[in-house]
Amino acid sequence: MPRKLTILGDSIMKGVMYNSKRDRYMLYNDGWFIESALSGGLEINKHCRMGATVEYGLESLSGDMKDSAVLIEFGGNDSNFDWGIVAGAPREEHAAFTPPEVFYRSYKKLIEAIRRIGAEPIAMNLIPINAESFFKWISRRADGERVLEWLGDENMLYRWHEYYNRTVERAAYETGCRLIDLRGRLLLDRSYATMICGDGLHPNEKGHELIRKLLLPMLV
Hints:
By secondary structure, the protein is an alpha/beta fold. Helix content is 46%, strand content 15%.
């Protein structure tokens, strides 16, 4: 594996967590991943942004990534919805920020584009969400009863997220791209529910530490 690593991702790999006491998002020691990787001889450049989708990954590609490995971490924001609009019309159809087939095509396009610039793409599947907490989070900003009317049940949030995860895995398989199964390792952890912030999406301090522990050996 190349000794240079570029990370294309969203707030998960940026190191974002939700601080419930301050009621805002903040960075959890953004340098921990880079410092840990450097100790293993791996040079890391991060192109991660809160709210980023797979289109951000395509826009962020550059020739500077040549001869590096490029870790792809997208899907969480792509699969999300404008919940205020959903609550306003719960009997209508609504599209995710990146509809499933668009996400699938764009993800494969990203893998192929990384190869064209002379880099090695590495796909990473999605970290699990806590559907119950995420629904409560949505209900803070939109009418929960109307959102639930559209969803059918709270666990649809998990199933929908899992569908995007399967899409990442499908795109990786079909393009012969290496896949890091971080999700599988996290699902086996019995205390994983305690490692997610109150929004049901972002890892807390314990979660970020676990990601570092599991992910770095897969990359270094």
